[in-house]
Specification:
Elements: H1 19-43, H2 46-79, H3 81-88, H4 134-139
Helix pairs in contact: 1-2, 2-3
Length: 142
């Protein structure tokens, strides 16, 4: 396994499961197939079509991986909803992802839906009084 740096897409208020990465990969591969088909139509060069066919196989394989990962995530939700919430909120890693070196999700920039965004239905989800972010505590920044 390589230790290459990667960009991880985050969403304020939740730790994304790697199904999101697989969805991105699927979308990018599908876009590449369409672009290669367009190049083949413009040029008539069958090389582009052959590469597009190879990528279509990769799209199918990626969809299978995404489905398997989604099933594991849904299984966690069904079997241990409390742990699912802890994982989603970034307090612990998803069980099917690498555990070593996990750092809790940085929550200092999270905003309160009720107080910051005036979402009245979110009064029970107020995050204003939460203690300092665990990621900052671990890094010694609080």
């Amino acid at each position: 396994m390589q230790n290459d740096a990667v960009w991880v897409r985050g969403v304020t208020g939740m730790q994304m499961h790697h199904t999101t990465d697989l969805q991105d990969a699927n979308r990018f591969l599908t876009n590449a197939v369409m672009a290669l088909r367009a190049a083949q139509v413009r040029t008539g060069d069958e090389q582009y079509s052959a590469i597009a066919e190879q990528l279509k196989t990769m799209v199918q394989e990626t969809r299978t991986l995404e489905s398997q990962a989604r099933e594991r995530m849904q299984g966690l939700h069904a079997s241990d909803p409390d742990r699912f919430v802890r994982c989603r909120e970034g307090h612990e890693p998803w069980p099917d992802e690498i555990q070593a070196g996990f750092v809790p999700r940085h929550t200092c920039m999270d905003q309160c839906l009720y107080h910051t965004h005036d979402v009245l239905d979110a009064i029970m989800q107020c995050t204003c009084g939460q203690p300092p972010c665990r990621a900052c505590v671990i890094r010694g920044m609080s």
